[in-house]
Amino acid sequence: MMDAVGIKDDIAVVRRSADPIVEWDENGTMVAGAFPTLFMMGGEMLPSGSFPSDLTRHLMSYYDGRFERSVTFIGTLFNQLQRHSAVRKAARAATTHVKTLRKLGDLANSLEFKQSLVAAKNDPDSPAAKRLNAGLLRILSIVGGTVPFSPFERAATRPKLSAMRIRFGLPQFWVTVAPPEQDVMTLLRIALLRKLKGWNNETATLDRRSFNGQIFLNTLEVTHVLDFLSRTPVQR
Questions:
Q1: Residue 184: alpha-carbon gap to chain centroid
Q2: What is the pLDDT of residue 8?
Q3: d(CA 236, CA 227)
Q4: φ, ψ at 67 (rounded to 5°)
Q5: Which residues touch 146 (CB under 8 Å, ≥6 apart)?
Q6: Nearest of 130, 149, 152 to residue 74 by alpha carbon
Q7: What residues does the Helitron helicase-like domain cover (predicted)?
Q8: What's this model's pTM, rounded to 2 decimal places?
Q9: What is the pLDDT of residues 206-232, one digit of tens each?
Q10: Is 4 exposed, middle or buried (0-12, 13-18, 19+ CB in 10 A)?
Q11: Which terminus of the chain faces fewer neighbouring Cβ atoms within 10 Å, N or C?
């Protein structure tokens, strides 16, 4: 028999099994096998189940950008994030909302259900279509309410945002910091003023005309104050 390997002893062994890989307990092996150019050391160091958020954040900020540039890899993680969340929620709902899920099963197995869906699709503004849509949303929201980036999550978040707006009011001033922040002079001035507690100058009184402009600008906006202080020397 011809020795095709030659004198090389280290051979990469590829094992196959009759049982398929299951992502619930072999997710690391499956992801590493699907993306061998990203995980060249295999999937032993990857989690066997869902990818935790801290690991995903680490991969997306990797130094050479190999993970964040892979659209297929990002799509796979996003798909798993939604599916795993839905499965976990459905498993909990199966024990806490038994009657509701049984009602959904009876509705889905009925002969009139498909006809009702077709009729609702053809005439979505009809009263029957609205009743069917409301009933399905009440049932499906039990599972979909906690699925990340789902329409149900957005619908559940909308009232919370409205309540926060009513309770705390609209924001009047935003400071957006984007790297490299060490090159933004406005941010450096804000940090310096906060460190020195220089927002209120004790020597800047109303009876001193040299500070009239500074006092007036303090009542307008922080950025105006910074521009004024950067051009006007402080008088002691």
A1: 27
A2: 58
A3: 19
A4: -80, -40
A5: 85, 89, 153
A6: 149
A7: 57-181
A8: 0.54
A9: 455 555 454 444 444 455 555 555 554
A10: exposed
A11: N
Can you read off the two tokens belonging to residue 16? Answer: 């196959």
Distances 163 to 142, 157, 172, 174 between C-alpha atoms, Å: 22, 10, 17, 20
Is residue 79 within 8 A of residue 87, CB to CB? The reply is: no
Split at pLDDT 50, 70, 90, the class of 1 is: very low
Q: Under 8 Å CB-to-CB from 141, ≥6 apart: which residues?
A: 152, 155, 156
- A 10 A CB-CB count for 3 gives 7
How many C-beta neighbours within 10 Å does residue 28 have? 19
Residue 227 corresponds to which amino acid? D
Q: Are 225 and 204 in contact (CB under 8 A)?
A: no
What does the buried/exposed string (b/e) look like for 169-182 if buried means 16 or more CB atoms within 10 Å of the residue's CB? eeeeeeeeeeeeee
**Which residue type is seen at 39?**
F
The pLDDT tens digits of the residues spanning 124-137 come to 889 888 888 888 87
| Count of other CB atoms within 10 angstroms of residue 225 | 20
Average pLDDT over residues 116-131: 88
Preceding peptide of 52 cis, ω within 30°: no
